[in-house]
Amino acid sequence: MPPKNIHYPYPKAVGKGYTVGKIIGRAMEIERFPKFGDYMRILDLIELQPDNHQKRHKELRFCQFYRKAGGTNNDWIFGQGAGHMSVKTFYKLIHKATTNKQHYGTFEGAFGKLIDK
């Protein structure tokens, strides 16, 4: 099932409200660390809807989910804080996004300028 729209709250300095983004492409990679647990690293291509503060545009989002070692599919929690991953995992996500092996949707040539050089 495709991911749902995401609400991005405005920065506090802007005031109340949010921008809506629709995930149009997703690549995922799971890393397992027996001592620490599992990390699901995600690269999303998001199309942000126009609002009073910005025009419709696309952005990349890196995020992660975490579960304790031995956890089940119901134990994933959204990873708060700055996302991090191994360089190898980063390359795997980019490869999936550029070769149409992603988990959902399409990256619509978002990496074309990188690949063509």
Task: Give a quick set of tags describing it.
117 residues; mainly beta; single chain; six-stranded antiparallel β-sheet
What does this 3D model show about the protein?
This protein has one domain (6-116). Helix content is 15%, strand content 40%. It is built from two helices and six strands, in the order βββββαβα. Strands 1, 2, 3, 4, 5 and 6 form a six-stranded antiparallel β-sheet that branches. A hairpin with an 8-residue loop joins strand 1 and strand 2. The chain is globular, with a radius of gyration of 16 Å.
The parts where pLDDT drops under 50 for at least 5 residues are none
In total, how many domains does the architecture comprise?
Answer: 1
Q: How far is it from the N-terminal to the C-terminal residue, by CA?
A: 35 Å
Helix residue percentage = 10-25%
Q: What value does the Rg take, in angstroms?
A: 16 Å
The major β-sheet equals: 6 strands, antiparallel
Q: Count of DSSP E strands?
A: 6
Q: Beta-strand level of the residues, as a percent range?
A: 35-45%
SS-based structural class?
A: mainly beta
What general outline do the C-alpha atoms trace? globular
Q: Tell me the number of helical segments per DSSP (H or I, 4 or more residues long).
A: 2
**SSE order in H/E notation?**
EEEEEHEH
Mean pLDDT: 82
What is the assembly state of the chains in this entry? single chain
